[in-house]
Structure formats: C-alpha cells, structure tokens
Amino acid sequence: MLRKFLYRACVQAGGMIEVRGVYKSFGKARVLEDVSFSVRNGEVVGFVGLNGAGKTTTIRITVGVLPPDAGDVFIDGYSVSEDKVEASARVGWVPELPIFESEYRALDYFAYLAGYYGYSEGEARRLGRELFERVGIGEAANKRLEEFSQGMKKRFALAVSLINDPPNFLFDEVLNGLDPQGIAFFRGLVQEFRKAGKAVLFSSHILSEVEGLADRVVFIHRGRIVGTYTMDEIRRRASGELLVSVSPLDDGAASIAAKYGEPEKRGNALAVKGFSGDPSSLVAELVAAGYRVAEVKRSEKSLEEFFFELVGLRGDGA
Ligand SMILES: Nc1ncnc2c1ncn2[C@@H]1O[C@H](COP(=O)(O)OP(=O)(O)OP(=O)(O)O)[C@@H](O)[C@H]1O
C-alpha cells in the first residue's frame, strides 16, 4: 500500500513497467527464466530477441493475459497478479497478430469494445472515428474486420489500445506488417508518448528496426535477459574498431590508442575496439610521438553483429 502511495506521489502522468523475476514454462519446456527489467516514464525501450526467445510470452504476462509461474509484473506499482484490474487498465497492448471478431464492421466492433471503458454508444462512435483518423484507417470504418489486411488490423488494435489513453504501452512486433507510411506514423506516435511521459516497450527481432526509436534496448535470448544497453552505448560499441597499422607496434603506441578505445595487437596492427573520436587525431598523436602510421581503416560492426555477438551466435544464426 505504502509502495503504491509513494509510487503515485513520484509518478503522476507517466507510466512505469517493472518485470520482476518472471519464470514461465509450457509443459516441460522452460520459456522464461528470471526475467527482470523495467521501463520508466518517458522511456521507449526496445525488447529484442530472436524468434522464440520469449518476447511475446513476456509481453502477454505483462499485460495480464498469461499468468507467470513465479515472479510478478508491476504496472504503475499495481501487481498484474494481485491488482489485475488496476494494472491492466493502465496498459495498452498491440499484439503481434491481432485477432478480432472478423464478421463485425470496424467501427461497430470498436464501439462494442469501448463500452467496456464506460463509453456510451454515441461517444464510442465519435471516439472511434477520431482514433481511426489518427491511426490512418478512417476510410475503413465501415469495412468488416475480415477484409482488413494485417497492417490495418495492427492499426485497428492501436486505435483500441488508445481508448483509455493509458500511461503504459506494449507493442509486440508492431512494425512488422506496417507499410513505410505506417512505420513513419508509429515513429511519430512513439515520440508523442515519450513527450507525454508514457512508458513504452516494443518488441522486435531486428535490432536495426529499433534504432532511431528506442532509448534503451533489453536483449532476451532463450528466455533469459542477456543485456540492457542504452542506444548510445550500442552505437558506441557497434561503431566498431579502428585498425591502425603502426610501427613500432609497442606498448607506447597502445597507450596512446587507449585514449580512443580499447586497443589490442592484431597481426602487425592495433585494433582499437569501441573507437570514439577522430582517427586523424590519433594518427597525429602517434606521429608526434615518433611512430610511423601506414594505414588506418574502420571496421564497421553492424548493429546486428553486436546483437549476435551478445547472444553468442554468428551472423547466420548458427
Ligand atoms: N502456448 C504455448 N504453448 C507452448 N509453447 C509455447 C506457447 N507459447 C509460446 N511457446 C513457446 O515459447 C517459446 C517462446 O515463444 P515466444 O512467442 O514468447 O517468442 P518470441 O520471442 O515472441 O518469438 P517471435 O519473435 O517468433 O514472435 C517458443 O519456444 C514457443 O514455441
């Protein structure tokens, strides 16, 4: 009780998602093991892992449609196990493959769902038209949901998740199936959410997809959290190495290079991992100290390589 009170005193408009020590098995297969992470208010967090890593299962537990075997999730301080109604009212969810009663017309079904949030029929229809316009399905209000493409279903699910303007959002592979216009719209929406202090978690199996959107990335592999990095850290680490062919290749050269990254000897060159700064300054420093520099080249490590390295796989997934 005190926790909730303190929590609400600290965070008013914004949201907060805290996943704590969650375990889940399906039959004998353990799918989540001690999964813990949090998303603070005003923060957009990418949830990245390969197919089958456990992203959807974590998200379903977080929104309260699947019970954890152990551990708990707190939404704005409310436990999804013990304060289910409060917790789920504070979170919007767009599932990976939204499934709706397909024979309904979009606006009719929206109005029916909005009824759960206390909207009258007329208010619900007004809100529906407004949100459909906002998410780009204004023209399709009277279409049957079975005629919707996967991308349109996602947009519809997004409109539904916006009904009560919750302070927390969970998007499962939301960019998958959206056209470029849809992706641009989603990026804009996430910016708005960030400004409004909402907590946003969105899953993807492609790290480069979350670039430009996420402030931080939580990596999951085989049901375990294997790392959490800010996007800046990822870029720094993935910005790669600078290979400097320098002679003599001695400790003095390495200590100069150490100002720019982590140097290690490789063949007749110094590989400076996590290089940051201007390569020409390093060259100038080496030359001023009496070294000869034959070649300098950057080996760009892509974001995907960073990810594969983190989870201990090669780029081909082997
Ligand atoms: N209801 C279920 N019954 C049995 N196994 C399940 C069930 N749901 C998920 N799994 C298994 O749990 C593991 C994690 O699945 P999950 O859908 O959470 O992964 P994911 O990271 O979301 O993958 P993707 O990127 O493919 O969507 C997989 O091995 C999957 O086969």
TrEMBL record:
<comment type="similarity">
    <text>Belongs to the ABC transporter superfamily.</text>
</comment>
<keyword id="KW-0067">ATP-binding</keyword>
<dbReference type="InterPro" id="IPR027417">
    <property type="entry name" value="P-loop_NTPase"/>
</dbReference>
<protein>
    <submittedName>
        <fullName>ABC transporter related</fullName>
    </submittedName>
</protein>
<keyword id="KW-0813">Transport</keyword>
<dbReference type="InterPro" id="IPR017871">
    <property type="entry name" value="ABC_transporter-like_CS"/>
</dbReference>
<dbReference type="Pfam" id="PF00005">
    <property type="entry name" value="ABC_tran"/>
</dbReference>
<dbReference type="InterPro" id="IPR003593">
    <property type="entry name" value="AAA+_ATPase"/>
</dbReference>
<feature type="domain" description="ABC transporter">
    <location>
        <begin position="17"/>
        <end position="247"/>
    </location>
</feature>
<keyword id="KW-0547">Nucleotide-binding</keyword>
<dbReference type="GO" id="GO:0005524">
    <property type="term" value="F:ATP binding"/>
</dbReference>
<dbReference type="InterPro" id="IPR003439">
    <property type="entry name" value="ABC_transporter-like_ATP-bd"/>
</dbReference>
<dbReference type="GO" id="GO:0016887">
    <property type="term" value="F:ATP hydrolysis activity"/>
</dbReference>
